[in-house]
Amino acid sequence: MLDCCEPLEKVKAKGISFGKVVCLAHCAGAKVEAFRSNHSTIDDFRRQVMACTTSDNCHLISSYHRGLFKQTGSGHFSPIGGYHVGKDMALILDVARFKYPPHWVPLPLLWEAMNTIDEATGLHRGFMLITKLHRAPALLYTLSCKHESWVTISKHLMDDLPVLLSSENVKGIKDVLSTVLSNLPSNFVEFIKWIAEVRRQEENGQNLSDEEKGRLAIKEEVLKQVQDTPLYKHVTSILFSKNSICQSKAASDSSLANVAANICCQGAGLFAGRSGSSDRFCCLQTCVRCYRATGGNSATVVSGTVVNGNGEQGVDVLVPTSLAKTSCCPSGQAGCSPMHPASNDVLTALLLALPPHTWSRIKDTKVLQEIENLVSAENLPPLLQEEILHLRGQFLLLKKCKDNKVEEDLAAPPF
Q: Which of 100, 202, 218, 320 is exposed most, by the fewest CB atoms within 10 A?
């Protein structure tokens, strides 16, 4: 399920390194503190084991060499499930139970097994602390490296784009944004994804719970803040004035109905316990319903009927409603209602999230100052600022993965 930073087929064949597991945890939205054994001590490790095994929200993952336990195999990852104070032993909740069940080991022996070198990287193994963030790291969008194209897309955005913007022809904000939008890879929609909330239809009947309404309200506030930025107005103007860009970057398969149909299939795969796979499910139809919520606001739900060989499953996708009067509708859809996700929303978020160095090679100092003011995170309201800083942190993390530098620096990205 957690295919990030490294293709699953490669992981199955060769395993995964300590640094890539840290990357994986970050990608999955966890807070991570990582310690290699040569940067820690057995006493520090013991204190962390005792703290995590008596905590409700901290989990400790140990990376160790199985050979020291007289087990077959070499490098392995396991969560630590308990600590026996009297015997100074740790309970390993093994993640490969078909091979070894959970077992107790003396903590000094576990430390010795952790204080070994991973031959694949030449670096020490260690342990990491995994905790839940106080709130979801992102509400509307996230960067995805599940699609194989993420390496080339991230290279374009982080390495090639600054070179394109160094052209003498970039003489105004319109030139800057047109250069970015017209040079986006055709499959960039695989790189920045809409975060969707999916539920089984029978869970809540025809009504939204107060909790669901609350989450939608927060998402809609972030969406409103995106649309209130001066950058959004520039992006929308360019998308409407250059319809060819709108058509190429907001293709018909990005319409709300089609996006939601794909999400319904993914959701059905998760509910069926198939790791989110959508290839076994087919979405027969989708329909959009609006619920009247407290205070006169409406909540949008896209319902899909998903089928596979075992029958039908009704799935709902909760959609924050855009209040913007303008929206870049795909393929000239008549009567396109202003609902999220829309291309001008996602492109604005992507531009805000690009690393600050993206703009540094613009030669006209006045234009450079103007674009830096437009994309500055300091000028954003707190909710949107958190969203954008998280996306920027993801950019930095993906760059480390792309450049094979994730092993060198295990510090958390600056969300």
A: 202
Chain position carrying tokens 């003489």: 171
Question: Is the CB of residue 4 less than 8 Å from the CB of residue 16?
Answer: no
Mean pLDDT of the chain: 79
Query: Between the CA atoms of 385, 386, 391 and 396, what dihedral angle is there, to the nearest 10 degrees?
Result: 100
Closest CA to 317 of 284, 282, 287, 280: 287
pLDDT one-digit tens code per residue, 176-222: 999 998 888 877 877 888 887 888 776 555 677 888 888 888 888 99
| CA dist 164 → 27, 30, 181, 364 (Å) | 29, 35, 12, 14
Peptide bond into 413 cis (omega under 30): no
Q: For 84, phi and psi rounded to 5 degrees?
A: -100, 110
* CB-neighbour burial class of residue 68 (10 A; exposed 0-12, middle 13-18, buried 19+): middle
End-to-end CA distance of the chain: 24
| CA separation, residue 404 to residues 18, 124, 407 (Å) | 13, 17, 7
Q: How far is CA 201 from CA 208, 265, 269, 280, in A?
A: 11, 14, 15, 20
* Backbone φ, ψ for residue 413 (5° rounding): -65, 155
pLDDT tens-digit profile of 218-267?
888 999 999 999 999 999 888 877 544 444 444 434 555 566 666 666 66
DSSP 8-state secondary structure symbol assigned to residue 258: H
The SS3 assignment for 212 reads helix
Query: Which tens digit of pLDDT belongs to each residue from 26-59?
Result: 777 788 899 999 999 999 999 999 999 999 889 9
Q: Whats the size of the chain, residue-wise?
A: 415
Directed axis angle between helix 173-182 and helix 343-353, to 10°? 110
**Phi then psi dihedrals of residue 291, to 5 deg:** -105, 140
| Mean pLDDT calculated for residue range 85-110 | 91
Distance of CA 109 to the CA centre of its chain: 36
Instruction: Provide the pLDDT for residue 31.
Output: 86
CA distance 301 to 119: 51
Six token digits for residue 186: 């055709």
DSSP state of 321: B
Measured CA to CA, the distance from residue 368 to residue 17 in angstroms comes to: 40
Task: Read off the tokens for 23.
Answer: 């990357």
Q: Is residue 78 classed as helix, strand or coil in its secondary structure? A: strand
